[in-house]
Amino acid sequence: MDIGSFAGPFLPEIFLLAGALLVFLLDVLNVRRNEVVGAIAVVTTALALLFVVADLGFAPFAGLATIPAGAIDATPSGAPLYTFTSLGLVFQGVFLAAAFLVSLASLSRPSEERGAPIFYGLLLIATLGMVLVAIASDLIFLLLAIEVSSIATYLLVAYTRRDSRSLEAAMKFYIIGALSTVLSFFGASLLYGAYGTTNLVAIAHVAGTVGYPVLVLLGYGFLIAGLAFKATLVPFHAWAVDVYDGAPTDVSSFLAGGSKKVGIFAFFLVFLAPILYVRTAPSGGPFTTGTVALGPVLQLTLSVVAVLTMTVGNVLALLQKEMKRMLAYSSISQAGYMMIGIAVGTAPALAGATLQVFAHVFMKGGAFLVVAGVSALGVGPLIEDWRGLGTRKPVLGVAFGLMLLSLAGVPLTVGFVSKFVLFSAAVDARGYFVWLAVAGLLNSALSVFYYARVLKIMFFDAPIPRAQPTGAVVGGSEPARLPAGGLGYGRAMAIGIAVAVIVAAGIYPQLVLGPIQNAAQHFVNLGI
Amino acid sequence: MVFGVLIGAAEMLSPGSYTNVEYTWLHLAPAPGPFPNGLSLVAGTLVDPISALMLLVVTIVGFAVMLYSIEYMHHDSGLPRYYSELSLFLAAMSGLVISDNLLEFFIFWELVGVCSYFLIGFYYDKPSAASAAKEAFIVTRVGDVMFLLGIFIYFYHYALAGPIGSGGWAANGFVFTRGSQPFLASSVRGSSTLLTVAGIMILGGAAGKSAQFPLHVWLPDAMEGPTTVSALIHAATMVAAGVYLLAVASLFLGFTSFDLLLIVAIGGFTAFFAATMAVVHPDIKRVIAYSTISQLGYMVLAIGAGFAMLGLFHLFTHAFFKALLFLAAGSVIHAIGTQDLFKMGGLRKTMRLTAAAFAIGGLALAGIPPFAGFWSKDDILAAVYSDLGSHPAYWPFFLLAYAAVFLTAYYIFRAWFLAFSGEKPRDPTLPEAHEAPWVMRIPMIILSALAVGGGLLIFWPSFDSLLLYGNGVGGIPPVYGSTEIVLSSVSVLLAGGGILLAWRLWGNGRVFVLAETAAAQSLRRLLLNRYYFKVGYDWIGLNGVYTVARAADFFDRYVIDGTVHGFERTFALLSDRLRRIQSGFVSDYASYVVAGLILVFVLLLLIAPYLVSAWGGI
After folding, report:
1. Which one has a higher pLDDT value, B248 or B162?
2. Cβ <8 Å between B617 and A305
């Protein structure tokens, strides 16, 4: 029997919701052990991920497909609230993978830690919102789904209630998030004023006929500002560093690996149609003469934002002294690369950006998971504190090193392939897009500096001598001992999976790239 | 290794079959530019008749050398390094011969190159070894760069060429062959200047790796490595790669007629030129080294004349007798600790097996029937001769190659007589010689058997039909008739004459002292100094390249480093300034959002429309 006919195409979403409710129920019943509730989250996300992968058509899981085959990438009729696109499913997979890795790693946290049910429940709710974003085809549906995930993430940042830093981070996150939500909704209402609809499918149909009033520009402008918050684009990024830094590190992993991509996909959804279709240009801009099409104007604006984001992110990452802040800035700059995809707006560029999104889950999300594990071992927050870690914990050091190399875009890691595909798509698009690729390459070169510095500190610098419990300082040759215990099975497995994906997708990228290229092509053909 | 032998043998038994496994590493969607149908980069394996032949050579010789090394190297330190590098060397070579596209081929090619660097410089604490390794690496690097350029030209030129798959060569990963379409069909081959240049580039790459004139200088110096490594380099791995590249390129890509003439010229000339240098050399290993260069010349000659499979057949037989010669020489060196022929003598009494092995190798090298070298070398000479009617320009190079037969027989038996005949060593201080232990004897016995019988394989029909592979593009080897028999007889007589002369001059402990006439002595000096090629290259290196390098260094130090440091300082400053933005006050962040909103509006409403209309509405 086909599972789809039993529960309908929303089985992943149903699972996530059920998992969250179960966790909260257990909380009420006083079952709060980290392992128990964590296992629920792990199983839930894994199952949902399995369904999504099956829906994408991977042969071994075909029997698990929940969406009827014809419904994916079908041309929508009317003005539906949701549409199943294969690119959306890829993003669902990315979100679920991030959630899965984070919950798997969090299994290794102390089992008596307070707030475990809240953590996993909120994680599942946030994931639910994100998964809904990926199937949205209406502005209001999209913004509400983003809100569902956002509100859950505000709380996630604050779930360690005793930690003032995380409370402060949550407060900042919330205030800026609320401001951005206002901007988004205001933009959506302006678009409604111009187009008479908030439905993305309908907008794609009527956009060409409505033309180019200032109202449309204002609407898209507000939407850029609102969505840029989620995607951490400069200059709407300022919250991200404080939040990634202040939040519990596993939550940072989720924010960087999963939640940020919501913004990227929202950009894909909202801006692809006008970029592709709105070429008519009746009246010209208010301050220019002649005719100007909307699409190129949006592309140019997004391009500027993309270059600004990657450059500022990289430049600021250069001098960071704290590991988490460095990773946060690097995360911002990676969002700049991803924005190249929508700015160029061709299928190969979208594919490259999506692959970058995919890679980022494992390299950046994984890196934060390592940081969380390492700080649990008693290593301080500064990059300097990591001195000699590579020689003291070789396996962990190599894993982290691979993640950094992938972030820098070194061949035989997935980070290289994604940048290669993305930049070559920008070059193929000709025009000023070539300069986007150039900016991306220069930024990659710049970023190597701070990644390589960490590698040097980890592998080539001697460990810092530490004060012994007695107060005597050990001689320089004797490194301070790390606790004998490891990271815990859950975290080790999560890191292992991340590294395996980074290397496997770097050695055999076509496995991932092929489906993504198809999905992006369908997405552009569909053009909602 | 045994597995590789099996694959090769299986292929041998069913000639003409293909085993092709590949997977796409990366596929780029179609886009305007040089690859309008998209671009695939693939990794795959292809076992066809030529690669099967090579696989046999690599694995059999590799096995023999490995076995021999157990005893020969066991006094050395750094054995883990030795065996891992040797294994990598063999793995890279095996990978090279089963690559199914040029890029993969190039990757393994470079791996072979770097392994040769490691192994030649195995005794890296010896300055001469270190410099020989560097020399081998740098000289072959000249070829590698040319090869890479050639690849690019071919990729560019044939990007859309069929008949491989749909969408052309680039969209299908530049693979050599697929299914029933073994070659890039002659229909798409052009004959433009660009292709001629590409062919010259490929030839350059092959000449570097296979030590052909004028890039031959590194090979004799590569004797600084352990003798086992020399055996491997000369027989199965390094130099074979260049010949294999030429064969693959001639079968698959095709050369223009000018390129073919150039290949024939280089092959024929090198065959003679290297043989002359071997005539006077006092070092047993270097004599064999020059003979390798000369024999490689025959292979290149055959490929240039359109008989790629004959060239590879000679490579096949040559691998066995050349490895045998090196292992026998290694056995001598192992026993008495010197490489100087003029110190040796009378060794046949104490080292019977080694003397016999060296003699078998020498007879095979000289081309005396029924030893292996006779069949392959004579096939080449007969085939080139049959082609002379249509290509009269090949005449001089054919004659040079023919003359080299005499020199070959002379120099290798000069070495044999010096080392093994006579009563006792010329240098009395040498230690008492002893026969090599069994671990070293077994590989010599195996290789002796192959050096005797390897050539007889052509009487086995399925092996013979293997040699006809690729006839669609190459020439058809001649059927043996009266002309060929006369030709063979003459070459056997020439070889016999060479051996006789060697016996007259050096046999029975005699030492031939060259007359003191100026002409003869200056010729000898010229040959000993290898025609002053090395001196010339060093001069070019020191005066030309070093000046350029100094200029580049200056540029690097002041312009590039200056720029880099400038950027570094700028970005550090920028980073420092920008960092202050991150105040930690949420009200500041909110104001950034507002500022960002204003920025977006300025872009959307003012700058972007202006630019877009100015650029003509892209």
Report:
1. B248
2. no
